[in-house]
Amino acid sequence: MNNLHSQDQIDAMRKRLYQRGATNSKPVRHKLSDTPVEVSKTWVPDSSNEGNTNDLRSGIDAAGGNEQSSEEKPKRHYRSFILLGSLLIFIFVVGLSSLFLYFGGNKISNDNIYISVLGPSAIGGGEVVPLQVAVSNENSVVMESVTLILKYPTGTRSVGDSPRNLFEERVPIDDIAPGEVQNIPVKVAIFGEEHAEKSIEATVEYRINGSNGMFYKNAEAFALRISSSPLVLRIESIEKVASGQLVEIVMTAVSNASSPLHDVLIEASYPNGFTYETSEPTPVYGQNVWRIEELLPEQTAVIKLQGIVSGLTEETFRINFNAGPSSPDNQNSVGATLAEAKADFIIERPFIDVAIDINGDTDRKVIIGQDEVSSVRVDITNTLDETVYDMVVEIIPNGNALAENSIKSSSGFYDSNNETVRWEVSNNSTFDRILPGGSRSLEFAVHQGPELTTASFDMVVNVYARRVAESSAQETLIGTIRAEAKYSSTVGVGSQASLVSGPVPPQVGEETVYNLSLGVSAGANDLANTIVETSLPLHVTWLDSYETEGVVTYNSVSKKIQWAIGDISSGQRKDLSFQVSILPSTSQVGQVVTLLNRQQVRANDRFTNALLQDGDEAVTTELSEEMGHEIDNGVVIR
Fold first, then answer.
1. What are the residues facing 188 on neighbouring strands?
2. What DSSP element (H or E) covers 215?
3. How far does CA 634 lie from the centroid of its chain?
């Protein structure tokens, strides 16, 4: 058999393929037959055919068929043994390491570090708390760079000459050797109201040799209770009010400490429905912070607060008060709460509608002119669905503008013992019964007293009545209102001219120089932002020579003069003098020449913040006869 891969055969094949005119034989296609053939589903070899089978296998091998011996290769089990052995070795190493760490190598176990915080379980508010923190190291290595971290409750302050608020404190500790115990003393002052629960958290931060990591161990929180407060705050006030009613809140601070309390602040938090009016004593900051300089043991301090309540019917709101020492960072803020209190209000539908106007102004804050007599009218309307009986109207006046006889009324009775004016059935028979929807009116006049500086007055109108027709029934407050009036100051301006040089009366073609003087005076109250404005006529020349305390500005184009005075104290006066000249013309013969046009002054009343204005007439060449001049000395002559 020729070698299929011989070069000669390859060359002969290439020649046949590329030979010109060569023809290829048509390929023969074989078709498959659809004739079914019966084949046995089971084949049981027959011994009689064994020889034939062998002959057939031999024939197939001899014919060069592709059937080969199917002898099975042996399986390789050694790979499974290697994998299983590796797994067993890994489990052994892990177990050995765990046993080593658990029994002999627990160098960083937190379970072997013990922290305990010892101290009193109950203290008085503001007292110094002595604490003892113990840290024990039961590990086999040294704890290095140990730091004790203490987290304090709100109201904790340091002890010493300069106390400060404490929230978190870090206390460095020396290295703790194996088996060693470190005791760290801590002293702090904890403030809080009575029965308040407080807790202190302790954490130890440390390192170990050979590790860059930081480790922490937390202790169980130390709990204590404020058994008593060194300060007690009591609030007295009515609970049910009508919208627009003036209410009074009495705050009483009582010392429960064994030593004096210093710089105690009382701070109030007002809701939107409360408007501060006044208090005794006055706040040290804003309208809601009061300071008690010193409070001795068992001593009391009283603060009276007044304000107006406004809101919808059945609306509720609350004023919160807290008291304690001032904060080291802000002297006008409570740094630690020693006592808390509250005042609750419920707005009821007003039983009686009370309205008041002063000089026709229904605003509850009115500004009236100095020395003006005020006409006050009070209208009372029964808004209930039932009749009220034996009504009493009581007016409580107050203010430095009032004297003993300032209130004039034809029917009211002034009681000097309690400084009130009363109207009742005995002096007004229409007060015995007011039907639903019925109304009554009162009128009286208020005269200003001798005090003029920052003068004002206010009055509270209280209405009492019985809601049942029984003489034994108790009178109840069913309506109230408050109004305030301030007396405004006055401002005045005056001017005059005097001769400096030149002919009098003025002559045509001859220059005459005049000195003009302006003066502005303040009334009962101090003035601020005082300004005088005026101007020169066309024929008058500004000589730029003046003397004054304020600032003078002259505009040469418009010839306007502005004198900015600024502040003027009550009852005081400030002056301006400057020089001008005229050169009369023939067209002015027989006339009195104007030297300065009308002056206007405006200022703000520092007490009432009202805008005050005044003016003075123009200044002419007609000089005062009191200076020795004859009549008609200002008429221009030839």
1. 129
2. strand 215-218
3. 67
Rounded CA-CA distance 497/355 in Å is 53
Tokens, residue 199: 């807790």
Rounded Cα distance between 151 and 186, Å, is: 12
For 246, the 3-state DSSP assignment is strand
Strands (E), 113-195: 113-118, 122-124, 128-137, 144-151, 156-157, 168-172, 181-190
Q: How far is residue 100 from each of residues 5, 497, 599, 630, measured CA to CA in Å?
A: 72, 114, 105, 129
- Is residue 16 scored above 80 in pLDDT? no
Task: Give the C-alpha separation, 9 to 166, whole Å.
Answer: 106
Q: How many other CB atoms are found less than 10 A from the CB of residue 257?
A: 20
Q: Helix, strand, or coil here: 587?
A: helix
Reported pTM: 0.51
pLDDT tier at 41 (50, 70, 90 boundaries)?
Answer: low
Dihedral sign of CA atoms 369, 371, 372, 377 in order: positive
Q: Does residue 330 register a pLDDT over 50?
A: yes
List CB contacts of 589: < 8 A, sequence separation 6 or more: 508, 636, 637, 638
* CATH code at 110-228: 2.60.40.10
Rounded distance, CA 80 to CA 45, Å? 39
What value does the CA radius of gyration of the chain take, rounded to a whole number of Å? Answer: 55
CATH superfamily of 231-348: Immunoglobulins (2.60.40.10)
In three-state secondary structure terms, 112 is helix
**H/E stretch holding 56:** helix 50-62
d(CA 611, CA 530): 10
- Write the single-letter amino acid at 128: V
> Is the separation of the CB atoms in 169 and 205 below 8 Å?
no
> In the CATH scheme, what is the homologous superfamily, with its name and number, of domain 491-627?
Mu homology domain, subdomain B (2.60.40.1170)
- Identify any residues that bridge with 616 across adjacent strands, giving them in sequence order: 599
Kind of pairing, strands 128-137 and 619-620?
Answer: unpaired
Question: Which phi and psi angles does 56 have, rounded to 5°?
Answer: -65, -45
Sequence spans of domains, the chain? 110-228, 231-348, 352-487, 491-627
**H or E element, residue 57:** helix 50-62
> Do the domains spanning 110-228 and 231-348 agree at the CATH topology level?
yes
If you average pLDDT over residues 494-507, what whole number do you get?
90
The CA distance from 387 to 590, in Å, is 80
Q: Kindly indicate the confidence band of residue 62, based on its pLDDT and cuts at 50, 70 and 90.
A: very low
Angle at CA of residue 444, ends 443 and 445, nearest 5°: 140
352-487 placed in CATH 2.60.40.740: yes
- Cα distances from 72 to residues 67, 69, 75, in angstroms, run 15, 9, 9
> Beta 300-309 vs 245-255: how paired, if at all?
antiparallel
